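Subject: complex prediction, re-run

Hi both,

The earlier run crashed halfway through, so I resubmitted it with identical inputs.
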Amino acid sequence: MSSATLQPTTLDRTVIEQIVRQIVLAQNGSAKNGSPAKAYEPKLMVSISPRHCHLTDEHVETLFGPGAKLNPEKNLYQDGFYAAAETVAVVGPRRRMLPTVRVLGPTRSFSQVELAFTDSISLGIDAPVRHSGNIKGTPGCVLVGPKGVVELQEGVIRAARHVHMSHRDADYFGVKNGDYMKLRIESPFCTLVMEDLLVRADATSKLEVHIDTDEGNACFLDAATKVELLKQDAGCGCKH
Amino acid sequence: MSSATLQPTTLDRTVIEQIVRQIVLAQNGSAKNGSPAKAYEPKLMVSISPRHCHLTDEHVETLFGPGAKLNPEKNLYQDGFYAAAETVAVVGPRRRMLPTVRVLGPTRSFSQVELAFTDSISLGIDAPVRHSGNIKGTPGCVLVGPKGVVELQEGVIRAARHVHMSHRDADYFGVKNGDYMKLRIESPFCTLVMEDLLVRADATSKLEVHIDTDEGNACFLDAATKVELLKQDAGCGCKH
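This time it finished cleanly. Structure:
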């Protein structure tokens, strides 16, 4: 079990809400895979991903003008990724709109809109819970930028919760890429255990859980007192 | 353990969102307190309470005019309680506003506004998680009705999750009034276990869990395939 004490951020919530809200947790537990505490203690970051979109190079040019490139505004926790200065409006099937949806970079080979369920209700789109990239058969939408419009035939999802990690972290937790874990967030009167946390392990990623705003708000993440990342088939932290 | 199969409602979501979203679950499990399956199998209702407020008689008259009474529009699941036709605007400290907050009846001896955390961010109010009635020291707000305005000095909370039940239901689950339970909601890619579910047992209440919109959205309640109401100190449904 890896338990942790919260170090709250000092940023203003309204600013963070537009980009990303995250907490860094000081690990002070030991691995729960039967081995004794190891010297290596990964630092666990829990990040709330607000609604955002990924774009292709072609769509960036359509939305922001010929030759346009994304302008990095804030680096994300994972090296090489950033929140761009650019935002788009997302328009749903009943002409409801989310006026300011952040674009994340770098560009990808397909465009994709990631919403919390609350956002999808506002927009009138029935966005299914999918892992990033798995967008076949999902609803589309219209993206509106300052210089043009893109109609996506598919790609609107509620991103399924997941945890990025290095292979070393995976060894630490006794899991491998593609496994599921769970995250227990202890918060006054609203403790949650989130199951179905997909492990995305590779050579270079830092240990970081991605949840959406609904999930972060449901457990009042900012007020959390303890977070545990557990194997899916491990105990949930409850007494038994 | 009591497990259940979902019977989705057929109401339009935008309508339900304004009043209440709920699912009725056909019980098909057995109690987990060590005794064999009992003949009595309570029906479990899980209700999402959207933002709403409770008012005193005096505040109803201030907001809706001298002599005004609440007009029941939709009966709630618990006998004697209803969503009123009346709504108020809730104004926060930075003049942000939630324009349509439903009033629930009957009236109470104190006025109280119950928001999801997402609502409280919109409103710019730092609403603490509290159990209903425990409002000492909580933030206030301004309520605006068609005939007047009320300034609440306190009473804005995020209502803590809880479960109403009869003493008979409490016996069935092996709990008593004031205990805590947990609710596991199995939903594709977003299963949640909500701990800290306060038991409110009395002679007449029906078995009903109250969660807020953030909690309901976090687990995509409408798509849930199984719900289990468990003792806080029982296993969480995970394999171990």
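Chain A touches chain B at residues 13-14, 17, 116-118, 121, 124, 129-131, 158, 160-161, 182, 187-196, 213-215, 217-220, 223, 232-236, 238-240 (CB under 8 Å).

- K.
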